[in-house]
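Following up on my earlier thread - several people asked me to post the actual chain instead of describing it. Fair enough. Here it is, all 162 residues.
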Amino acid sequence: MEPNTLEALYRKYAGELYLYAFSLCQERAQAQDLVSEAFCRALLSLEGGEESWKSWLFKVCRNLWLDQCRRRKHLTGGPPDAERLTGEGDMLEDLIREETRRTVYQAVQQLSPLDREIITLYYYGQLSLKEVGAAMGITPGAARTMLCRARKKLKSRLEGMI
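Reply from S.P.:
Thanks for posting it. Predicted structure:
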């Protein structure tokens, strides 16, 4: 693989992959390590078109995290950097948007690990159901069912908060 290609892919997917990794491990340094390792493996092993990169990177990241969990067996952490979640615009709108994002993020983090993972892949990672299924090792139909159930749980947690 060409170094320029890897750099372009890193710029395109690193932010989304970091949010996904953080949602899995709940630790900033570990999330950064997962993202770095996923891209190192990409440099060494994957050839092909860019359309397969995104779901492949998410799957590699998930497998790396599962390997670390098997070795460590503990999860802790706080929310990701606020700069990653803020938008542009009026200062008051930014504050309202940031508070809403934090509320949603906190509600997502209170979900079970599988529900949190599927919500993160689909909404934060912007993967299709087919790509989510590939990343999690399940069928697209199973991913759709899991996503529907996770959304219902998230909605019940957010009622009255937003």
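Residues 24 and 161 are 24 Å apart (CA to CA). That should answer part of your original question.
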